[in-house]
Amino acid sequence: MHTIRTALVACVAALALPATAPAQQVYNQISPQRLEGILSSMGYEYKKIDEGKGKHYYDLKVKGLTLRLTSFKGQDLMLDVLLPAIEWKEINRWNGKAKFSRARLTQDSGGKDSVALEYNLDLLGGVTDDTIKQYLRTFENEIVNFDKFAKANPVAVGPEDVYRGIPADRLEKILGELNIKYNKKPIGKDMVYTFVRNKYEIRLTNFNGEDLMIDAHFPATELTKLNAWNLKRSYIRAVLYTEGTPQTALEANLDCAAGISDSIVRYFITTFDSEVRDFDSFLKK
Amino acid sequence: MTHQARWALPLAGGLACLLFAAAPARTQQSETVYREFKTDQIEQILQEMKITYQKKPVPGLPDEYDYFFKRNNYNIRFTLSKGKLLWISANFPKTTLEKINGWNQRAKFTRAVLDRNGDKEFAVVESQLDAGGGATIEMVKQMIRRFDQDVALFDQFLRKA
């Protein structure tokens, strides 16, 4: 009876304790062997370069990029990667909002302007293997986030891949990158994509890969009001359609025939958001 | 523009073929994309297109320039506003808002507006390019070439009853 009671008390006590991870060794310096063990356990393939004086580089291949992990005598680590350059003002904005990484302008080995994205870890306060693993995972997330940020803020002057025309698969890739969930319907040689952005129904038409039109529909409005809108705004067109149920359309077109880059198409789609919102407010006045 | 009401295509299509004939479809190449244009770039484009222009700063608006020139007997105005808005336009006599809207129903790369300068009202056909989103030199040239077609079509459209 006494044994059973003791066992029961022990079980209750164990259940009442907060859940804890298995105890890990805390250390303030990591040997190359231990670091390489962590990299291997996480599936990283790496090339090691011994710089001497306790400094080691590990070049990690991740999703087509080369990440460099530098160990400074095992006491602090740095991860960095070279990415395409963006404007220094945007780099400053990234540095103002990013939690873990920092970006700076540099040049790659070929002298081409690039952004170095970096993230440091100080081991001297004590870390575990899980700390190192999380450090690596977080940096991979930072790269993904920086890529999204860079695409939204492209460089003012720079070479980009420019295509004559916009085939469906390319447009759909861009829509996917913008997280736009669309329905599509072919009309002859044209493809019509419909989706909802900020609660507005948007239609994007690809006219045989040669040009794009984006539009949104509103209740019919008097022509004087539409003309007033067209006079004060740029790049778009407010039109009254009277075939069938009269309605007002807000439209914008993009000529792709002379060549278009992905960033131009992205901008065309995303800037329509504010046009639609402002037009809706204007109509309600 | 409605999908059905593309009445201008037969005429524009023939002209378009001339414009696109030399351009290979769907090819990729690396080109410089600008997000701001300087006046010397615009002037070089106009010179390459053999356009003789008169340049004037827009009164009261810093960093805004108008380029006036004649194309196919039409008086054209090309405006560079703060390096980012490229705007090409042509003025016509006043018309009705119904006619203005009628053009806008059919148009693709232009729009028509009824504008006013003091007591005088007039119709304008115009096209705008937002360089802030990125534009190549070729896109600017294409904008000017397309406008050649549209200004003539707009003129014909206004003359119809």
Describe this structure in words.
By secondary structure, chain A is α+β, with helices and mostly antiparallel strands. Chain A has helices at 2-16, 32-41, 88-97, 129-152, 168-177, 223-232, 262-284, and strands spanning 46-52, 55-62, 65-72, 76-84, 102-107, 113-122, 157-163, 183-187, 190-197, 200-207, 211-219, 237-241, 247-255. A 6-stranded antiparallel β-sheet of chain A has the order 1-2-3-4-6-5. With 161 residues, chain B is an alpha+beta fold. In chain B, 34% of the residues lie in helices and 34% in strands. Chain B has helices at residues 9-20, 39-48, 97-106, 137-159; strands at residues 28-34, 54-57, 64-71, 74-81, 85-93, 111-117, 120-130. Chain B has a 6-stranded antiparallel β-sheet with strand order 2-3-4-5-7-6. In chain B, helix 1 packs antiparallel against helix 4. Classes of the chains: A alpha+beta (285), B alpha+beta (161). Chains A and B meet through strand 7, helix 6, strand 12, strand 13 and helix 7 of A and helix 1, strand 1, helix 3, strand 6 and strand 7 of B.
Largest sheet features of chain A? 6 strands, antiparallel
Portion in strands of chain B: 25-35%
Taking strands numbered 1, 2, ... along the chain, how are they ordered across the largest sheet of chain B?
2-3-4-5-7-6
Number of helices of chain A: 7
Spatial gap, N to C terminus of chain B: 20 Å
Determine the number of helices of chain B (DSSP H or I, runs of at least 4 residues): 4
- The structural class of chain B is alpha+beta
Average pLDDT of chain B, rounded to a whole number, is 88
Which structural class do you get from the secondary structure elements of chain A?
Answer: alpha+beta
